[in-house]
Amino acid sequence: MDKETIYIKNLLVDLDKKSNEEKLRINLYTIMITAILSKKIFVKNSDIPEFISKLNIHYKDYVYRSRTLVVARIIREIEKSDKTKLLVFVSELKELLFESNNSSNHDNKKKLQTKGTNNNSADDILSQFRRE
Question: Region Disordered: what ranges (predicted)?
Fold first, then answer.
C-alpha cells in the first residue's frame, strides 16, 4: 500500500457524523483530490465515472478525459453541498478505499494459492518466506 492511500485512510477514519461541516468539507477537498489524481486508486480515467455516479453526480463524457477537470467539478460539488451530502461522500470513499483493499488482499491470496502446482523445493521455501 502506498503512502497516499494510507494518508487518505487515516483522514477518513477521523471523519464521522460528529465532525462539524467545515472540517468535513476541508478534509473532503484533500481526500477527493488525492483519490481522483491517484493512479493506484483509479488506474484508468474510465474507472472514475463509476465512483462519481455513486455520489449521484453525473457529468458529460468529455469531463472524464481529464482528471484535473473532474477534480475541479468535484471541488465545486463539495463547496455547494450540505452536511448530509458530505457524509454521503465520506461513506462512499470509505467503501471505495476499505472494500477495494479487502478484495485486493483476498485476490492476492487466491493467486498465491492457485499458483502452479509443479513447484520444486526451492519454490516451497521461497513461498514460506514471501513478504506480504
Answer: 101-132
C-alpha cell at 49: 465515472
Could you count the other beta carbons within 10 Å of the beta carbon of residue 60?
A: 6
How many Å from the N-terminal Cα to the C-terminal Cα in the chain? 10
* CA–CA distance, 62 with 2 (Å, rounded to integer): 29
Least Cα distance to 55 among 34, 36, 30 occurs for 36
**What residues does each domain of the chain span?**
1-90
DSSP 44: S
In the block, residue with C-alpha cell 476499505: 98
Residue type, 16: D
Q: What is the mean pLDDT of residues 67-96?
A: 91
How far lies 88's CA from each of 85, 107, 130, in Å?
5, 28, 39
pLDDT band at 80; cut points 50, 70, 90 = very high
Count of CB atoms situated within 10 Å of the CB of 85: 15
If one counts every other C-beta atom within 10 angstroms of the C-beta of residue 55, the result is: 17
pLDDT at residue 106, as a whole number = 45
